[in-house]
Amino acid sequence: MAKTVYVVGTCDTKAEELAYARSLIRAAGVDAVLVDVGTRGETDVADVPAREVAAQHPGGVDAVLGGTDRGAAVGAMAEALTLWLTARQDIGAVLGLGGSGNTALVTQAMRALPVGVPKLMVSTVASSNVAPYVGPTDIAMMYSVTDVAGLNAISRQIIANAAHAVAGMAQWQAPKASGDLPGVGMTMFGVTTTCVDQLRERLDDTYECYVFHATGTGGQSMEKLAESGLLAGMIDTTTTEVPDLLMGGVFPCTQDRFGAVARTRLPYVGSVGAVDMVNFGALETVPEKYRDRNLYVHNPQVTLMRTTAQENAEIGRWIAERLNRCEGEVRFLLPLGGVSAIDAPGMPFHDPEADAALFAAIRETLVTTPRRQLIELPFNINDPAFADAAVAEFRKIAS
Hints:
By secondary structure, the protein is of the alpha/beta class.
């Protein structure tokens, strides 16, 4: 199927710039379609009018274009664009142009596309914190330098660079290597590195191991790859992002953690690596309510807080409740000898009572089935025997 570059933006305010980008892409020999996502009036510039996109909203066109609240209209259009764009089967690349509002709108739809589909956003906010726009996926952000407000000597050059970039990406895809192995996603933190290194050693002959640093976005990125069809399974030993979500740490997951496991039904081996800690920045940034807790300065920029028995029970229930939604092959391993490198006898976070509360909550909450199993092991998560067991279980369900 021929590939098309979709140029997306608000034609009620950016028609000239969007049409210029479309013309350059077509001049490069690539089909380009201009999609209008404006909410303040129709134009005749676009190939796909705003009304056609808005019709994809569950509430219909009027839910997007029928109100007077611009913020609500933009949010509704973002939802409609996501549904419209993800239904396309011929996407070669997506190019967006605009300011903060248009950036939020277009990148929401871009984030729903699979990893690997080229996505480029020319934006006035691209030189600031772009994490909310990029999220866990592979959106490229290009700073517009001047505002996207008419064509001039600067904006023509920036938009031309972007147009030629997406034209090239649409025409030339990365070649597949004949020796590519199926991919397995793994989560890791400093205190579970030994575990993951051993997993990689044991699996490198049959899988490409993609390791994700469990810093909030890491878990999201792994699950995004799963939903993009780029993983054969997951060995999610390090679920430390959950306590950060529940206790207010700086590396939180989202409420959708484990969602991709449920939706894809990929083979999944998980554990509770590093849930003995909540992450904060430098010591002085730890919230006042936590200042009298067991704190460990990991480095000058990272301070760890030991989770309590009560917190661990909450963490265990939260994880188990989400695993109960997973109908694929799931093996969840409990390392009864400790959940991190510093949760071991003589180490600063060794707390058998807190660990016991975690394990008990998972036992009580997880609904086991022939496909969803809980496996308890008398090892620390970094022990070689734990890695052996994790690999053995993964091979059983991934074969």
